[in-house]
Known about the structure:
five-stranded mixed sheet
Amino acid sequence: MQxxxxxxxxxxxxxxAHDGSELVAPAPVDENNKVTDFSNMEAQxxxxxxxxxxxxxxxxxxLDDVVEEVLYVLDVDAAFAVAGSVRKAAYGREDPQxxxxxxxxxxxxxPQQLIEISFHARVG
Length: 124
């Protein structure tokens, strides 16, 4: 289950950069499935926000209703380099009013995956 609503809160499980059939902008990996280049961080981050917005719409909500997000990333520096502009674009404002945590991790679900974002939204 990717999302669930309890009362006035919507919980979105980690969103990643998929288009329904495959990973969008997969990171290149070596023969050991280790990422060799983090330059697709921005594209993956943008797509994760698009996917979150689409999922929130199923509940009659939008990114405007998000109160908290947690970004899990393989490379903190690469994420920090693009997060400001990506978040501003996703939320449509210069100062997104969202509690945000960015956490570096050593592995995500897929070898080419650079980021996963979970969300909490309040509606009603």
